[in-house]
Amino acid sequence: MRNLIMCLNLAAVLTYGAERVTLTGKVTDNLGKPIEDATVMVYHAGVKVGYSAYCPSCYVDCGKRTVTDGTGSFTIKSLAPDLWFELLVVRDGYTPTFIKKVDPSRGPAETAALSRRGVVDDPDRVVRGRVVDSSGQPVRAAVVEADGIYAPPADSLWYGTIEGLEPVAVTNPKGEFELAYSKKATGMVLRVEARTMATKVVAAPTGAERTTITVSEGALVRGRLLNHGKPVAGAELGLIPRNTGGFSSKFKISGDPYSEIRIGTQDDGSFVITNVPAPVGWYIYGKMESIAALGATDHMKCATVRDGEEVDVGDIEIHPGHRLRGKVTLSDGNSVADGMRVTVTSENGTGDSQTVLIGPDGHFEFVSLPTGDYQIFASVRGYKSGANQDAATTVDRDIDNFTIKLDRMVRR
Predict the structure, then answer these.
(1) 3-state class of 9 per DSSP?
(2) What three-state secondary structure class fits 124?
(3) Radius of gyration over alpha carbons of the chain, in Å?
(4) How far apart are CA 155 and CA 250, in angstroms?
């Protein structure tokens, strides 16, 4: 059979509303025929100017995805204008393909090709699965990501980017999928996401048999964000498990290994988060970078108990936060180059963060930090934290003299 190629031609247009950008594109085969139901997702991101050591998969826009329509076209809206993006394109029966460093504000990106996926004959290298709903009906176009892999010796569990491991698959009309590894393994940790369904995280063994994974609608969480009693529109809230947990080497789950869920507020300050996994205990909070100009919120506890449940957390009030001013100094006395950044990350269980640019004189400032413990990390190209440098602090008042000392990296 002739090898079919899916070509991805990206065209980007700048959207000026709220200074966000929109990425559009089209997926076709090698004959120019549109390909429907190809999934296009934002996989990684990075800053266009300067340097940042911030996790490339931790940016707010990472995880945004869409599906091509009958003309092969797709649109991903409301992307940060100061970031570049790495996209992942997947379609059942084809090998996933990455599109590197797409800048939506600079027009079309280079064409990518998605080729037919070969058959994996060794059952010890592949996880085969089938995704169904609570009625046992197959779920098509569900995205299945490999978060980790169990591999010899002793069924060691490895997380992160693993060479030779297919990162993602999409279920076919029968709800079936396959994810392969270049070496023998005993299983994988899978994250399953389907439209109108709650995310499901499971461990599945390799082998010839298919593992059935059942997804359900989940619960609904609603509430309202207020500032001095007035609704706040266009802000972002986060919802994250209080006990994020994980998997052991025995395929056993502990806690609730779900990622943060983000949602924006409507004109009346209200928000509705659908398809929330249950039963799970959660923290809900205003994202620092979203509401810093207004203040801060505390992280509120809530819980989802069962599918179909509606949880109303009521009003979340914005209150004054704290200021953290400081200076980055370099051990060799040099000035900090343009575009360098400092990130402050909360240790209150949410992992929420703010990132700001460092001024030419090394000064930086965070505003509206909620009371709590924080880690502060400076990203300056060619430098690292000095010996015995304590980058942790408690913020329970305004701080104006926080110092971060960085040493020049020694090349070996």
Answers:
(1) strand
(2) helix
(3) 23
(4) 8
Distance CA 233, CA 227 (A): 10
For the record, the structure tokens of 313 come out as 């957390």
Q: Going along 30-133, which residue ranges are E strands?
A: 39-47, 65-67, 73-79, 83-90, 97-102, 112-115, 126-132
Tell the residue number behind the tokens 């706040």, with chain if given.
Answer: 232
Residue 370: is it exposed, middle or buried by C-beta count within 10 angstroms (0-12/13-18/19+)? buried
Write out the two tokens for 63: 């995880």
The maximal CA–CA distance of the chain, rounded, in angstroms, is: 68
Q: Are 160 and 252 in contact (CB under 8 A)?
A: no
**Closest by alpha carbon to 137, among 191, 173, 91, 179?**
173
Distance CA 27, CA 4 (A): 13
Domain 123-214: give its CATH code. 2.60.40.1120
Q: What is the 8-class DSSP label of residue 409?
A: P
Q: From first to last of the 412 residues of the chain, give the pLDDT tens digit.
A: 334 444 545 444 433 334 788 888 778 777 777 878 888 888 888 888 776 655 677 677 888 888 888 888 888 988 989 899 988 888 877 777 787 888 988 765 555 567 777 788 899 999 999 999 999 999 987 889 998 899 887 778 888 778 889 888 888 889 999 999 999 999 999 999 888 899 999 999 999 999 999 999 999 999 999 999 999 998 999 999 999 887 877 788 888 999 899 888 999 999 999 999 999 999 999 999 999 999 999 999 999 999 999 999 999 999 999 999 999 999 899 999 999 999 999 999 999 999 999 998 999 999 999 999 999 999 998 998 865 555 889 999 999 999 999 999 876 6
8 A C-beta contact, residue 264 and residue 234: yes
CATH architecture of 5-115: Sandwich (2.60)
**Where does 219-318 sit in CATH, by number?**
2.60.40.10
Measured CA to CA in angstroms, residue 54 lies from 239, 263, 340, 355 at distances of 21, 22, 11, 9
The reply to whether 322-408 shares the fold of 219-318 is yes
Local structure of 171: helix, strand or coil:
coil
- Residue 206 is which amino acid? T
Phi first, then psi, for residue 18 (nearest 5°) are 60, 20
322-408: which CATH topology? Immunoglobulin-like (2.60.40)
Q: What angle do CA 381, 386, 390 make, to 5 degrees?
A: 115
